[in-house]
Design a protein that fits this description.
Low-confidence stretches: none
Order of helices and strands: EEEEEEEEEEE
Largest sheet: 7 strands, mixed
Number of strands: 11
Mean pLDDT: 97
Length: 116
């Protein structure tokens, strides 16, 4: 049974930091590209960061570049999203996604709220 379980969300003040984690099971994690997406209320889901299966290449949305860092630990079947200098507009549900060829898996999401 495939599972992606996100954790680490919560309430943080503007300028603060959070680290999201997504732990995978039920598939060969090291073979999959991993990504973080987010969806704010009333908006479409958008991809914020992606990392290749070996971790050698990453890519970020312009809105988070320089503030967010995606990383992975294939020994722990886990992908991370370090979020620094958080802004109110970063408030959203954050989802991790695993992709390989025609296979795609999503986590259930974790809420991140940035508010003073």
């Amino acid at each position: 049974q495939v599972q992606l379980v996100e954790s680490g969300g919560g309430l943080v003040q503007p300028g603060g930091s959070l680290r999201l984690s997504c732990t995978a099971s039920g598939f060969t994690f090291r073979n999959y590209i991993m990504a973080w997406h987010r969806q704010a209320p009333g908006k479409e889901r958008e991809r914020v960061a992606v990392i290749t299966n070996t971790g050698g290449t990453t890519n970020y949305a312009d809105s988070v570049k320089g503030r967010f860092t995606i990383s992975r630990d294939n020994a722990k079947n886990t992908v991370y999203l370090q979020m620094n200098s958080l802004k109110i507009e970063d408030t959203a549900v954050y989802y991790c996604k695993a992709v390989r060829l025609l296979s795609e898996y999503w986590g259930q999401g974790t809420q991140v709220t940035v508010s003073s």
